[in-house]
Inverse folding.
């Protein structure tokens, strides 16, 4: 079994180690290994659920002028295989890319927030001619070149008249539309025989609480995104913790690129690597400190490109934990932690970024420490204590 194999491998790797270190490593290994496996199992349950939901939506909205829902992408810490939260509070986040329906196009423009990282943008919905693309016998009308009377008789309003405010795609209207769809479609789902489902209040996403008898609830958040070109950078309906933008402003997100990065590492890494366990344990250590989970994830992503993947095996677990904390301390001391996706020369070629990201100067996530000496002193004290 996996457990026996794990125990056998641990004894082989423990030879020559200090007994106290070996015991500590084994305790961390066992508890964090369980947590990582549990996250992976529940993520697969969520992926299947959302995939089934989207299958029903494609059938229900076929030939409509609602956004075309693409296959979901698991994003965020839980879908990457780690979490700063206790099991009961873990939220599995799935990003559903939106494509324009026939006769429509999306054009991206700057919104009210133009700073990087996480600038805000609007998604302008434009009507495009479909006359030349009409199939013989098709009843599809062109929004640009058929008269209003014909369009009224067709009884299919354009996307501009349903989920937009003015010419702009409205994140709140899309979230409400999808919440209503999930409520009405749940009985068609196979999962409805095993789970009770409740749609939780949310203005810019669809939050679901699934409950199975005698099991902890499963929390799922479905967010919506518009892709920037053919890159792994999206505009997201989800708002930032400290910023709730207008409903027509979508915030740039790097969550898909981060998910792609962890998938890339997973494909390249040898079996039984410990980087997810390092993330999991460090996230728990940093809970309640001034260092955010995103700061920790950025540190580990940098280290995964600096330290060969062969150096993340089980026997190196405590060494890598020390590296994570020391890298964080050095960044605080130097008042500089570079954002992973801007001007990073070590970016794996499998991650697709807009040219502007590749050519940009690195963005400092610790800029506040440069500008605020008191915050820097406090952060340095905290990092040294850690």
């Amino acid at each position: 079994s996996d457990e026996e194999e794990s125990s056998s491998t641990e004894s082989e790797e423990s030879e020559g180690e200090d007994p106290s270190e070996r015991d500590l490593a084994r305790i961390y290994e066992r508890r964090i290994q369980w947590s990582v496996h549990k996250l992976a199992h529940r993520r697969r349950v969520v992926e299947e659920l959302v995939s089934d939901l989207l299958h029903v939506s494609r059938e229900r909205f076929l030939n409509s002028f609602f956004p075309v829902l693409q296959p979901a992408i698991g994003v965020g810490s839980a879908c990457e295989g780690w979490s700063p939260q206790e099991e009961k509070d873990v939220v599995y986040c799935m990003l559903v890319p939106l494509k324009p329906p026939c006769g429509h196009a999306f054009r991206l423009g700057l919104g009210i927030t133009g700073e990087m990282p996480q600038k805000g943008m609007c998604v302008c919905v434009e009507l495009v001619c479909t006359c030349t693309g009409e199939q013989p016998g098709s009843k599809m009308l062109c929004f640009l070149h058929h008269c209003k009377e014909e369009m009224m008789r067709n009884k299919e309003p354009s996307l501009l008249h349903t989920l937009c405010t003015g010419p702009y795609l409205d994140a709140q209207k899309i979230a409400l539309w999808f919440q209503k769809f999930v409520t009405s479609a749940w009985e068609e789902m196979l999962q409805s025989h095993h789970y009770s489902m409740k749609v939780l209040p949310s203005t810019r996403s669809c939050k679901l609480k699934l409950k199975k008898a005698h099991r902890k609830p499963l929390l799922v958040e479905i967010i919506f995104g518009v892709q920037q070109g053919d890159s792994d950078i999206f505009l997201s309906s989800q708002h930032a913790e400290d910023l709730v933008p207008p409903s027509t402003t979508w915030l740039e997100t790097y969550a898909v690129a981060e998910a792609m990065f962890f998938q890339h590492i997973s494909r390249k890494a040898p079996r039984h690597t410990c980087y997810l366990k390092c993330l999991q344990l460090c996230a728990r250590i940093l809970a309640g400190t001034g260092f955010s989970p995103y700061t920790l994830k950025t540190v580990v992503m940098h280290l995964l490109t600096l330290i060969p993947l062969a150096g993340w095996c089980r026997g190196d677990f405590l060494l890598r934990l020390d590296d994570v904390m020391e890298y964080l301390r050095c960044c605080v001391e130097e008042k500089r932690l570079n954002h992973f996706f801007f001007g990073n020369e070590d970016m794996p070629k499998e991650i697709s970024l807009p040219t502007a990201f590749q050519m940009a100067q690195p963005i400092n996530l610790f800029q506040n420490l440069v500008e605020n000496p008191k915050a820097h002193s406090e952060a340095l004290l905290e990092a040294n204590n850690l």
